């Protein structure tokens, strides 16, 4: 006998989607032939979605890096046609600090198998790593016990 489905009670979690822990661009937004091209698109989107002008971003980046950054430089970093002018790491870090948007860093790190996560999760990662190490030590201890018992 099958149960009838309750159609009168609302499913509170049906449309729920948790917020992502790792901020990323949609793959189609930064699609390009090369890593430099993907990074250029990510830099362009970061600046576009920041709500700031490129002049304001350039000025703030100059303050952070203590080196002159112009709007023309930002235009070059955001242009796929000028891939030889990829944004330097220090300036990318400054862009992230100014906009608060880490997605461009995640585009850059993706091929290395790494991600940028909020600092507040660092303690959780340490805890999980400690649990992994504890499990590894337990397995080693069990293997040593087994070996000792079989050699008697």
What does this structure look like?
With 152 residues, the protein is an all-alpha fold. The chain folds into two domains: 90 residues; 36 residues. 53% of the residues lie in helices and 0% in strands. Helix 2 packs across helix 3. The longest helix has 29 residues. It is extended, with a radius of gyration of 24 Å. It starts with 34 loop residues before the first helix and ends with a helix.
Keywords:
152 residues; mainly alpha; 2 domains
Brief account:
The chain has helices at residues 35-49, 54-65, 71-77, 89-99, 103-109, 122-150. The chain has 152 residues and is mainly α.
Q: How would you state the average pLDDT, rounded?
A: 89
Give the percentage of residues in beta strands: under 5%
Q: Report the structural category.
A: mainly alpha
Q: Largest beta sheet, briefly?
A: none
Percent helix among the residues? 40-55%
Count of β-strands = 0
H-E string? HHHHHH
| Computed Rg | 24 Å
How many domain units? 2
Shape field: extended
User: Cα distance, first to last residue?
Assistant: 59 Å
Q: Work out the helix count.
A: 6
Uncertain runs are none
Layout of secondary structure:
Blueprint (H helix, E strand, L loop, with lengths): L34 H15 L4 H12 L5 H7 L11 H11 L3 H7 L12 H29 L2
Helix pairs in contact: 1-5, 2-3, 2-4
